[in-house]
Structure formats: structure tokens, C-alpha cells
Amino acid sequence: MMREIIAVIPASGIGSRMQADKPKQYLTLKGKTVLEHTVSLFIDHPQIHKVIVAVAKDDPFYANIALLKSDKVQIVFGGKTRANSVFNALCQIENETAWALVHDAARPCLKRSDLDKILQIEDQQGGILATPVVDTIKRAHSTQILHTEDRTTLWQAFTPQFFPADRLKKALQSAFEKGQNVTDEASAMELSGYSPQLISGRSDNLKITRPEDLALAEFYLTHSPSL
User: Fold this and answer.
1) What is the average pLDDT across 191-202?
2) Number of other CB atoms surrounding residue 195 within 10 Å
3) Is 181 helix (H, G, I), strand (E, B) or coil?
4) Which residues of this protein are annotated with the site description Positions MEP for the nucleophilic attack (predicted)?
5) Which residues contact residue 56 at a Cβ distance below 8 angstroms, ignoring those fewer than 6 apart?
6) How far apart are CA 203 and CA 223, in angstroms?
7) Fewer beta carbons within 10 Å, N or C terminal of the chain?
8) Alpha helix locations (H) across 14-143?
9) pLDDT greater than 80 at residue 57
10) b or e along 46-81 (b: 16 or more beta carbons within 10 Å of the residue's beta carbon)?
């Protein structure tokens, strides 16, 4: 029987590093908002049953996006942190055997080939898209270098991150109760004793964070193959 797969898109952040007049997910990229590009990736995929988008309670922008009115999209209100927003979305999933595919709202350049690759995971510990670190990595105190890290064992975590929804919800709840720091879904699973799988993905799956990233994302969407 085909698994029920729910895409979860936390989109309640303000994106302060973009220095823009609106949250980065609502900036325009090739005639559409960043969020529209991202949501379209999942609405159009035949294996994904529903897309849950977590927005801020005082968000004045999402109501104007026609795509978010699709029957396949559900809107929920996010929380103070990304982890809280993901948790709020997971609480809307009634099927205890469903899987949650969590993806950053500001990663519009995900390719279908990478999405298909991560959807093949069946191990109950789940997995994430990532790429081996290629740059030299320095550990620092303030702005002073302490030493150079061994990058041969380091990976840069991307999204989507794919887990059994109920397990991920329980892992997040446990982390909240213990006051543990959760920076992504995999870190919550790790804190609960799981060892998620690393799926090597494309490096152009960038997260729009700074002003220069918007131009790079437009370049990738224009010149990079969609599959």
C-alpha cells in the first residue's frame, strides 16, 4: 500500500538577514513569490498527498496567494521557532503511519530528481538531503580561529528531511520538554536516539538567506535543468 506522505513547509520566519520589506518567502522570483515556487514542487508530485504550510499568525501576505487556496494545501499557524512551526503542522496529521517531508520555504531550487531520491527512504529512522562539505571549515572563538576541522566526516544538511510523522512529532515534543536545541528535524531525531540517513543531493538546492542569494536562485531556476 502506498504511504501517505505529507509535505510540511515552515514559512513563519521573518528572514531578517535579507534586509527586505517583507519576509523572504514572499519576495518575487521569476514572477512568483519564493513560497509559490517551493509549494509548487510538492503540489505537483504524485506521491505527496497534502502540503501543510505553517505561517505566522499576523502574516498579511499568504491570503493573497492563489496557490495556497488549493485543495491540496492546508494552512496552519506557526510558533516562535522553526521547530514549533513544524510541530504545529505535524499535529494536524491524523494518520499515525503517515510520513512527513519537511522542506524550507526558502529553498525553491529543489530538483525533482533529489525529491524522488529522498522519497525512496523506507528506514523508520528517516533521512535528509545533504552534501559533503567541500570548503575548509574553521572552528573559532568570536572571530579568532581556534583550529581547522577535518571536513572528511562533515556534511551540510539540506531539506527536504523525511521521517515517520509520529516519530518526528514525539522527538520534537521530547526536545521541547528537555529544553534541547533543535536546529532541524534530524537533530530532534538524533536527540531521541535515531541515526537518520544522509542522502547526497545537489549543491544548487540553496536556502535563500542573504540578498545575494535571490539572484543566485533566479540563475539556478533559469539555467539549471528542472529534473
Assistant:
1) 98
2) 12
3) coil
4) 151, 207
5) 12, 14, 23, 77, 78
6) 15
7) N
8) 34-43, 82-90, 112-118
9) yes
10) eebbbbbbbbbeebebbeebebbeeeebbbbebbeb
Query: Could you tell me the CA-to-CA distances from 177 to 128, 192, 203, 216 in Å, in that order?
Result: 24, 12, 35, 39
pLDDT digits (tens, 9 = 90+) for 62-78: 999 999 999 999 999 99
Q: Report CA-CA distances (Å) from 206 to 58, 97, 124, 135, 201.
A: 27, 30, 27, 16, 11
Q: Is 18 in contact with 210 (CB distance < 8 Å)?
A: yes
Q: Is the dihedral of CA 161, 167, 169, 175 positive or negative?
A: negative
| Cell digits of residue 96 | 499515525
* Side chain identity, residue 205: N
The total number of residues shown for the chain amounts to 227
3-state secondary structure 69-98: HCCCEEEEECCCCHHHHHHHHHCCCCCCCC
Superfamily of segment(s) 5-222 = Spore Coat Polysaccharide Biosynthesis Protein SpsA; Chain A (3.90.550.10)
What are the beta bridge partners of residue 180? none
Q: Where are the domains of the chain?
A: 5-222
Provide the 10 A C-beta neighbour count for residue 137. Answer: 13
Query: CA 185, CA 39: separation in Å to the nearest integer?
Result: 19
What is the Cα–Cα distance from 191 to 172, expressed in whole angstroms? Answer: 9
